[in-house]
Structure to design on (407 residues):
């Protein structure tokens, strides 16, 4: 009944043909329709199973001829196709010979209390502007530092100077680096960058001084950042900010600061001078302070662009100043928490800087430069610590920040 293509063989059907009307009636009889539908089903079914023997592979039973209970884990994984180990890009270690490709592993670079034993590297950074008169003293103290000099790199930024700072610096650095008695430092970098337009004198009238201070602090912040980004190397563990106008500091100051193992730590800054054969001591740096509720309130009342500067009558912050605490005769290891810090002498774990904490040259929480640095570090969750009884002596200068007024 089925032709080569599964259709009816019409001539055979026609041979027994009744008259056309009865064919018509016959076709529409239920039994005929049912048998036609059944025939169609049989054809479709047959076509689906009667294809080539290759298609029968679909029903091939693969895997080991064992019950799953008897399979080893490897058999099971082969059988299921799961957990099959895959090795991508399997190759021998790469050998990179190009001298233009440099690899630094920062993972072993740590900043710890054992910095001295671990031979942790220290970067000393000093921004300079019209500072030639201070350089001799600066290097006199620098060479006395007892931290091994071959672990110390120096970085200077000379900018906006109209005196002989650069020449004097170059001469001093060469003198020190030529020494063969372990005085020479590991390396020295001198960065030159003029920012321009920072006309500021302490003599200007007080009512202009406040605004000028904010501009000056932003400019110094920018200079510090340029110096930091130009000098920080991958192997530095500590960054030690040291101003040029320090007149006395303990030779082991680097070890002393590192031992505290704090993210950021500053000593207290005093000044002294001889007057009529009398040694006059004073507290210098009012930029290291603890925030007060009144200071926060004051900041909240200001525009976000206003930079607060301590010591001017325009704004009274009622903060607690480290300069007013402590004494150099007391326990040098005593620590206090700070929110803002001064820049005369700061020890920083290099990773704090690497993480992006720097010296804002704009108003960050209404502070700029080192005070903004303290605020930013605190915001990022770093420790900011002061040592009220560990004193570094600053030159006595008219530029010293004014003592804040009482509320
Ligand atoms: C890299 O340099 C070493 C030593 O000179 C040499 O033996 C090696 O074949 C070089 N490898 C490649 C990939 O050039
Ligand atoms: C300043 O702070 C002290 C606490 O350090 C507080 O006793 C005093 O009332 C504050 N002064 C003002 C004016 O808010």
């Amino acid at each position: 009944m089925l032709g080569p293509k599964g259709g009816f063989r019409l001539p055979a059907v026609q041979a027994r043909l009744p008259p056309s009307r009865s064919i018509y009636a016959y076709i529409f009889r239920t039994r005929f329709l049912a048998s036609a539908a059944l025939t169609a089903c049989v054809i479709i079914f047959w076509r689906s199973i009667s294809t080539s023997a290759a298609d029968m592979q679909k029903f091939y039973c693969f895997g080991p001829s064992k019950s799953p209970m008897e399979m080893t884990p490897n058999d099971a994984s082969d059988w299921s196709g799961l957990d099959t180990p895959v090795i991508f890009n399997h190759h021998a270690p790469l050998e990179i010979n190009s001298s233009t490709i440099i690899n630094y592993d920062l993972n072993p670079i740590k900043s710890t209390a054992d910095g001295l034993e671990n031979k942790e590297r220290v970067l000393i950074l000093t921004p300079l502007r019209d500072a030639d008169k201070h350089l001799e003293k600066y290097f006199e103290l620098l060479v006395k530092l007892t931290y091994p000099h071959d672990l110390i790199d120096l970085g200077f930024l000379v900018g906006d100077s109209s005196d002989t700072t650069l020449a004097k610096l170059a001469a001093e650095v060469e003198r020190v680096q030529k020494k063969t008695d372990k005085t020479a430092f590991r390396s020295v970098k001198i960065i030159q960058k003029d920012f321009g337009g920072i006309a500021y004198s302490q003599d200007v009238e007080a009512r202009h001084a406040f605004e000028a201070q904010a501009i000056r602090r932003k400019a110094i912040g920018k200079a510090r950042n340029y110096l930091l980004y130009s000098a920080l190397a991958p192997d530095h563990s500590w960054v030690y900010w040291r101003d040029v106008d320090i007149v006395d500091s303990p030779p082991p100051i680097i070890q002393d600061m590192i031992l505290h193992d704090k993210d950021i730590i500053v000593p207290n800054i005093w000044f002294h001078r001889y007057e009529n054969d009398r040694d006059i001591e004073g507290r210098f740096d009012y930029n290291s302070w603890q925030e007060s509720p009144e200071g926060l309130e004051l900041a909240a009342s200001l525009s976000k662009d206003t930079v607060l500067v301590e010591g001017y009558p325009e704004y009274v912050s009622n903060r607690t100043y480290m300069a007013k605490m402590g004494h150099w005769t007391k326990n040098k290891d005593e620590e206090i928490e700070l929110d803002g810090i001064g820049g005369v002498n700061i020890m920083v774990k290099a990773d704090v800087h690497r993480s992006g904490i720097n010296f804002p040259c704009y108003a960050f929480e209404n502070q700029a430069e080192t005070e903004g640095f303290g605020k930013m570090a605190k915001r990022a969750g770093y420790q900011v610590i002061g040592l009220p009884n560990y004193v570094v002596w600053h030159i006595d200068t008219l530029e010293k920040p004014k003592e804040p007024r009482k509320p």
User: Anything to note?
Assistant: Confidence is low (pLDDT under 50) at residues 1-11, 200-204. Residues 206-231 form the longest helix (26 residues). Residues 95, 97 surround 2-acetamido-2-deoxy-beta-D-glucopyranose (ligand 1) (CB under 6 Å). The two ends are 115 Å apart (CA to CA).
